[in-house]
Give the backbone structure.
Amino acid sequence: MRIDVITLFPDFIAQCAAFGVTGRAGERGLLSLHGWNPRDYAEGNYRRVDERPFGGGPGMVMLIDPLRAAIEAARAADPVPAKVIYLTPQGAPLTQAKARELAARERVILLCGRYEGIDERLIEAEVDEELSIGDYVLSGGELAAAVVVDAVARLQEGALSDAESAEQDSFEGGVLDCPHYTRPVEHELGRVPDVLLSGNHADIARWRRKESLGRTWQRRPDLLDEAALTQADHKLLDEYRARFAE
Ligand SMILES: NC(=O)c1ccc(NC2CCCC2)nc1
């Protein structure tokens, strides 16, 4: 997968993707990341990329032309067509399902704004989708872009070893992850649940599913409504809830 990022701070994105799973995905040729700086396409002595907003008000707005030229340069760098995604609080929420959809694409161009945002005419003309990583405001779209890069990189085939498999992801199947334990079995903070030591894989899978469902019920009941629960799931959830009825 190829990701082009339009940003005033290309090094920022390169650094975010240089470590761990994203770094390894790059080394394995599973993901290629390219930064395009609108300032390289800005004209005039000061190479302006922003200007004051019409209608007054605080802050600055990013100019159309440097952004448009950077997007065109990114498009021209590879024959594969790419959708342009603008990271903004006004965007659709990024979910694991959306991450999987993006991870299946050959190319994506991520557009990062700064200041108060970008001229609306550029959004209308060049942006295919607007995405938000959460309901809060950041000083730039770069952190949101880095989150998207991470979420799609780990989903590239071969990015995660079997031990790290994305199949058991939190939100996989729309429910939260179960608790995880490792050695030592006994610790001053407590003991590992016996079922996980039993070697009985059916019991372990059942316990993990029950914990995932139970935690989702407790912490994110909104997700539970969306998740397609089987009859067996409902039984597990009843068992989990029974703990609190006593
Ligand atoms: N929640 C988010 O995904 C998000 C994205 C961009 C942003 N700030 C950018 C947007 C235009 C100027 C700064 N803040 C928040």
